[in-house]
Design a protein that fits this description.
Helices cover about 40% and strands about 20% of the residues. The protein is built from five helices and five strands. The chain has a five-stranded mixed β-sheet with strand order 1-2-3-4-5, sandwiched between helices. α1 (about 10-30) packs across α2. The longest helix has 18 residues, at about 10-30.
């Protein structure tokens, strides 16, 4: 198994992984707000990869026997005038996707992908890393917490009808 920078020849595998992640999110969504749109597989990887390119990011993949078994995408977003009004705005990296296929989880692949992205962010002088984690994804929350990540904000919702 090796961690490499994304190559276009792996696009279909990346699409499959993102669908696997979305199916998992749908399965744990207690609010029943997430769903797998008919165009998700066709469009989501392209949207994410465009974001990676636009915001000085990287996509790394874990490849085993020429099959992608994990991926991580990260960006280094820019701040705007609004951000500077109430925030110190240290340079940060953001992890926008991380998945390891269910058949290879708990083998250290996620940790290797995180390490690779953290190294990229450090090389680009980022001071912090931000990642959004679905509130019902206890496995991911535990994974990140063990690695030193912590909550800074909460996004709360209330159903009103």
């Amino acid at each position: 198994m090796r961690i490499i920078e994304y190559e276009d020849k792996y696009l279909e595998d990346v699409k499959d992984l993102l669908v696997e992640l979305e199916e998992y999110i749908v399965s744990i969504d207690k609010d029943n707000l997430d769903y797998l749109h008919k165009d998700y597989r066709k469009k989501m990887a392209i949207i994410d990869l465009e974001k990676v390119n636009k915001y000085n990011g990287k996509c790394y993949i874990a490849v085993d026997n020429n099959k992608v078994v994990g991926l991580i995408m990260g960006i280094i977003p820019e701040y705007d005038e609004y951000d500077y009004l109430d925030y110190k705005c240290p340079k940060r990296g953001e992890i926008i996707e991380l998945i390891v296929t269910k058949n290879t989880r708990s083998k250290g692949i996620g940790r290797l992908l995180i390490n690779k992205m953290e190294e990229y962010f450090k090389d680009n002088n980022c001071e912090y890393i931000k990642i959004e984690v679905f509130a019902y994804n206890d496995k991911a929350i535990n994974f990140y917490t063990k690695d030193g990540y912590h909550s800074r904000m909460y996004d709360m919702i209330k159903k009103i009808c």
